[in-house]
Design goal:
Layout lengths: L2 H8 L13 H12 L10 E6 L2 H16 L4 H8 L11 E8 L5 H18 L3 E4 L2 H6 L2 H9 L8 E10 L21
Antiparallel strand pairs: 1-2, 2-4, 3-4
The chain binds flavin mononucleotide.
Flavin mononucleotide binds next to β3.
């Protein structure tokens, strides 16, 4: 198996992190991989916001947890109600990819950039986990105010389309959950 395929198959969402922050060079390589994602008409509609401030991460974690607790989705409410639940799993770095909402396909541009980053991180022994709560938080006016109050701003016309935490795993990498079968149709 070649290294790229191996990285894709072995990347896992990790939910327990060490406090160590990956150094600038490693974070830079991960961001560079994001920039080299394909984008509609090569508009590169993304912007990368990297948050490493522990106090800020904790404040955002609390705001996201509140969104889960107030969600219509019972499973989310249950998870968030656990006393030891932390939305960001104490990971030391959060990256939010925002996209220009006047671009052709910012959601896809940003999602592809993030997938590149998750894979690049895995290849560098940095673990990651997608954070949907960021987009949930930003989807309400109250949530947008949380970002403003914390001083987390995005470029004009931008909104967050992808977010993930990164850091060193504090646990052994788990095996993948089995993938579904029967999800391919060949025609011809
Ligand atoms: C759109 C999307 C939203 C996700 N949101 C979260 C999240 O908020 N918290 C979390 O722990 N994992 C989240 N995940 C990670 C998935 O749970 C994970 O990818 C899935 O269980 C498969 O596991 P694997 O990534 O280890 O292969 C999300 C993944 C995607 C693609």
């Amino acid at each position: 198996m070649n290294e790229t395929i191996r990285t894709i198959l072995e990347r896992r969402s990790i939910r327990t992190y060490k406090t160590d922050i990956p150094d600038e060079k490693i974070v830079g390589q991960i961001l560079e991989a994001g920039r080299y994602a394909p984008s509609a008409m090569n508009q590169q509609s993304w912007h990368f916001t990297v948050i490493r401030d522990r106090t800020l991460l904790e404040a955002l974690d609390i705001a996201c947890k509140k969104v889960f607790l107030e969600s219509d989705v019972e499973a989310l409410r249950e998870v968030a109600a656990r006393p030891d639940f932390s939305v960001f799993y104490q990971a030391p770095v959060l990256v939010i990819v925002s996209g220009d909402n006047t671009a052709l396909a910012p959601r896809y541009d940003c999602t592809l950039a993030m997938e590149n980053m998750l894979l690049a991180a895995a290849s560098l022994d940095i673990s990651s986990c997608w954070m949907h709560s960021i987009m949930m938080l930003y989807s309400t006016e109250k949530g947008k105010a949380v970002f403003r109050d914390l001083g987390i701003t995005f470029p004009e016309r931008h909104e967050p389309y992808a977010a993930a935490v990164f850091g060193y795993s504090a646990v052994a990498l788990p095996d993948a959950e089995p993938r579904k079968e029967g999800d391919v149709t060949f025609i011809g």
